[in-house]
TrEMBL record:
Function: Required for nicotinamide riboside transport across the inner membrane.
Natural source organism: Sphingobacterium hotanense
Segments crossing the lipid bilayer: 12-33, 39-56, 65-81, 101-118, 148-165, 171-189
A Pfam match: NMN_transporter
Membrane among keywords: yes
Topology of this chain in the membrane: Multi-pass membrane protein
Keywords: Cell membrane, Membrane, Transmembrane, Transmembrane helix, Transport
Subcellular location(s) per record: Cell membrane
Identification of the protein by name: Nicotinamide riboside transporter PnuC
Main location: membrane
Family: Belongs to the nicotinamide ribonucleoside (NR) uptake permease (TC 4.B.1) family.
Length: 200
């Protein structure tokens, strides 16, 4: 255990400036999203651009591709949240059990396709884990842009899944960031739920 902690500490000391910048901007982005602050989207553009490079270098090809998707959803989310702020629509919506079941089925389908592709077309050593985390993140991010309450529950789940994956890839600072993301996502769910119930 002491050797493991020593190794983690050494990797933490060797963390690149690029990963520091990606981590800090990522933390600010998720914190602002949980608070329903529209500035989360432009900061997200900075963070995902940095992580696109970092994950590609770590051979996390699913996560690397995911950053391109995040870039697109950041632009869309920025537009959609701004438009919704000036409309009469409810600020937050919620899924029923049927919609939630369909969402899970979509995640599993995408995860299977991505995992198979990464397993057969790349040199990834974690193709199905990478594919599953990527699929869950794809869906959670889209639900966030549409201000669907359950996006935060998906984020809590997938953030917990990412922590051991990033430790495995020696991305210690990013693993620590995802511990913080898990906490913020849970707080985000509670805050959004209160806002949702206030409009019922």
């Amino acid at each position: 255990m002491q050797d493991f902690l020593s190794q983690l500490y050494q990797q933490f000391l060797e963390t690149s400036l690029l990963e520091w910048l990606a981590t800090i901007s990522g933390f600010i982005c998720v914190f602002l999203a949980a608070k329903q602050n529209i500035w989360n989207w432009p900061i997200s553009i900075i963070s995902v651009s940095l992580y696109l490079y970092i994950f590609y270098q770590a051979k996390l090809y699913g996560d690397s591709t995911l950053q391109i998707y995040f870039l697109g959803t950041a632009v869309y989310g920025w537009y959609y949240w701004n438009r919704r702020a000036h409309s009469e629509e409810k600020p937050i919506t919620s899924f029923n059990s049927k919609q939630l079941g369909l969402t899970i089925a979509i995640i599993l389908l995408i995860a299977g396709i991505l995992g198979y592709f990464l397993d057969h077309k790349t040199d990834s050593d974690v193709p199905y884990i990478d594919g599953f985390c990527t699929a869950t993140s794809l869906v959670a991010q889209f639900l966030m842009t549409r201000k669907v309450l359950q996006n935060w529950l998906l984020w809590v789940f997938v953030d917990l899944c990412y922590i051991p994956l990033y430790i495995h890839k020696d991305l210690i600072l990013t693993a620590i960031l995802y511990i913080a993301f898990t906490i913020i996502a849970w707080d985000g769910y509670r805050d959004w739920r209160k806002s949702y119930l206030n409009f019922q």
